[in-house]
Amino acid sequence: MTAENTIHPSKWMKTDDAGLYCVPGNFYIDPMQPVETALVTHGHADHARAGHKRVFAHPQTMAIMTTRYGDDMAEEQIAVPYRESVEFDEVATTESHSDPSKEGQRKIKVTFYPAGHILGSSQLLIEYAGYRLVISGDYKRRHDPTCPPFEVVPCDVLITEATFGLPVFAHPPIEQEMQKLLHSLEVFPTRCHLVGTYALGKCQRVILALREAGYAKPIYLHGALLKLCDLYEREGIALGRIIPVSEVEDKALLAGEIVLAPPSALADRWSRSLPHVRAVLASGWMQIRARAKQRNAELPLIISDHCDWPELLQTLTEVNPSEVWVTHGREDALIYQAQKMGFKARALSLVGYDEAAQEE
Amino acid sequence: MQAFSELLEQLYYTSGTKAKAQLILQYLATTPDPDRGWAIAAMAGTLKFDFFKRNTVKKLITERVDPELFAMSYDYVGEVSETVAHLWPELAPENAPDEALPSLSEVVDTFASISKQKVAATLANYLTIMTPPQRWALLKLGTRGLRIGVSARSIKQILADYGNQDIIEIEKLWHGVAPPYTDLLEWLEGNGAKPDISNAVTFHPVMLSHPIEQSDIDNFDPEAWQIEHKFDGIRVQLVCNTTKEKPEKALFSRTGDDISHAFPDLLDSVSGNMVLDGELLVMHNQEVDTFNALQQRLNKKKPTAALMKTNPAGLIVYDALVLEGKHLTDSPLSARRQALEDWFYHNGTQDKDTPSRLHLSVRLYADSPKWLRTLHKKVCENRAVEGLMIKRSSSHYLPGRPKGQWYKWKRDPLVVDAVVMYAQRGHGKRSSFYSDYTFGAWQDEQLLPIGKAYSGFTDEELKKLDNWVRRNAIGRFGPVREVKKELVLEVAFDAVHPSKRHKSGVALRFPRIHRIRWDKPANEADSLINVKALIES
């Protein structure tokens, strides 16, 4: 292909009210509203919604979506394993009209790569009109036994998230945070340690980290976490002995035990039946005191499934794209830093990825 | 330093006064002198000097971190100390100093003794050998900005509990003892005598009032109460003893801050052995000037002769705790008032050429609830008056806010409907919430900002406002968000002053959000002309 018929991604990747849109392929990535064709990076609710006509996603993401929304969550469900590609025919665009003979000849090729965020999480490589564009989705660079690690995919344009895109965010090793929890159990042996974790990803990662730290006792779960833990088990991730809180008749027996629940349940009436609760919250936001305080965490654990600042910079260096587009999160600082590092960088504003509603 | 940092960490995340008190009691029982005394001073806010200036901290961090990234981080975190604690560069393990972590008292002693030139380097060295939570503790301690949800009053209560004493005993001693409180703690533990403060010129905790209720007015009994003006100045305590060998005088704010340096004109004019309770104002002989005039004096740590001439300080005296060496706090208000009247009769106007700066508060009369209401309405017509004080004649002078003794009846606030123009994220507990709002009034087709408010709403309303700001933001100036000019706030405030600093030409006193007018169209909000009409003459 000659330079004349290359088209820069800024001409064919657009954003609108539904989200990020690939014009020649006529598909959206993680759309907020029901659309004709959706490519879904991972199963968190602010990325994966029900009601699209056609969904492309990694098989595990698809399983998460059907678990959450039912088997009929989309009319057509096309599972794409890691490192496999799907191709879309080019639809008419202003650019392709400039050369009518080329219309319909070009393809848009999309390949899925692991993102290391949660089970099934993917990056998408889009190849079109002489350019390679990678959409990172949500990702992290640390060890996580629940999913394969992030792969560095060389590209011209990298679209990266910036959830923790400020230099104040440097997440400590998860082992250290688990020690805090185990230490607290020693200091407060009669208090029920109620740990707020998001149902998808964080919950299972915390369970595995506890197991790796040698915690062999049963772990008790709020009902809202059960379905997804079952799914992880079916996907071959062993979580050890799990007991639903609803099956514990005498709740007084939960004194000194670890109970996992969605963060919202910490302040909910549900937790009142538990004995002398110590409110623990596992989230990347816990690094900021006021944030932890706002959530009424007595024991904040800094555990995140997103990149911290050093990981974001590591990724820029390793992927080494010629251009970076930064999306949801604290874009300003990462754009500034990327420019300082010599990258062309700009913000890509997407609607709907609400910080408050955002799962991790 | 480790124990102190851990205490702060636990206090920060623990809610409930009782649980916090337990943590502090445990700390007192297990921590040696003088560390624990310094910790008390840090928590009660009685440290006498800043270890280092905020600017020193800022300078150190800008030498180490890109200023733009620092600014963005600070805007997000909402607090300098925590931002610095996170951003301070860690040393690689192989370069880590093998210096031991200093104790709290070592830190205090070091900063108290080193020369100014060495402060920055010493601080930098400490920060490098500390963990982020320890850094936070040091920065909060050193700039005296510790806010851990424990008031000075609670600390006194905890000390009282620690030694099985009544809190009044602690209150009485408090301003006569100094950090690290070794004598006080020894006495509380039963290992020493009660500290002797009888001869010291110290602040005596003041007696405070409650807002009056309608039922109190309905039950008003003219025989039992003393009525006075409530002036729009600041409450102060004048302590003076010129009868002893080394004469001492001081002026304290109602929270015990020593503000003597700002009001030498007032202090120079007094002599005797007394503790007076009164309202500090700018006064031209008998005539009371506006709060704005006083504000100019309060802003100056050392006033110029010219300023003292144009804005002379005066004191309207309404009570005496000590008069001519005699302690009066155990006498009823009626007796204290009589003593004051006698004293003013003999000492008030001794010299015709230098009129006294002390003025006796005028007693007002009402013989029924109805008259009391009329009186209130009438006094509020004078804008230098904030309302009425209604005090029980039989009340003893009790520190704190005893029930049923003193009432304040403030004037109704002024209100205007203003339009939200900009919003900024709050700090501390409200970091990440858009909780500070700049609002404006109309001048023709244009809105001009008239003030900023960040209180008066519930947590629930804050969430809704925050959400509204996020959905209606149209621009960004650093941390400030410009919003669509669509939301009307009913803003309450105590007064309007002319101001040269603001484009609108007005400044509001104590603006707070009275109501959120989700229903009101922005074009129906008040005009600047309406606001200016409320300026006190």
What is the structure about, briefly put?
Chain A has 360 residues and is an alpha/beta fold.
Rg over C-alpha atoms of chain A, rounded to the nearest angstrom? 22 Å
Q: What is the CATH C level class of the largest domain in chain B, in words?
A: Alpha Beta
CATH class (first level) name of the largest domain in chain A: Alpha Beta
**Which of globular, elongated, flat, extended, rod-shaped describes the shape of chain A?**
globular
Q: Could you estimate the helical fraction of the residues of chain B in percent?
A: 25-40%
Q: Strand order, biggest sheet of chain A?
A: 7-8-9-10-11-18-19
Low-confidence stretches of chain A: 352-360
State the end-to-end distance of chain B. Answer: 55 Å
Radius of gyration of chain B: 26 Å
Please explain how this structure is put together:
The complex is a heterodimer of chains A (360) and B (537). Chain A is α/β, with parallel strands linked by helices. Chain A folds into 2 domains: 3-168 and 306-347, Metallo-beta-lactamase, Chain A (4-Layer Sandwich); 174-301, Rossmann fold (3-Layer(aba) Sandwich). Chain A has helices at residues 9-12, 59-69, 94-97, 174-187, 202-212, 226-234, 289-294, 309-319, 331-340, and strands spanning 13-16, 19-22, 27-29, 37-40, 54-57, 76-79, 85-89, 107-114, 122-128, 131-135, 157-162, 192-196, 219-221, 242-244, 258-261, 277-282, 299-301, 323-329, 344-347. The longest helix of chain A is centred in the middle third of the chain and has 14 residues, at 174-187. The two termini of chain A are 41 Å apart. Chain B folds into 3 domains: 2-142, DNA ligase, ATP-dependent, N-terminal domain (DNA ligase i, domain 1), CATH 1.10.3260; 210-410, 2-Layer Sandwich (D-amino Acid Aminotransferase, Chain A, domain 1), CATH 3.30.470.30; 414-532, Nucleic acid-binding proteins (OB fold (Dihydrolipoamide Acetyltransferase, E2P), Beta Barrel), CATH 2.40.50.140. By secondary structure, chain B is of the alpha+beta class. In chain B, strand 13 (414-425) and strand 14 form a beta hairpin. The chains are: A alpha/beta (360), B alpha+beta (537). Chains A and B meet through helix 7 and helix 9 of A and helix 5 and helix 6 of B.
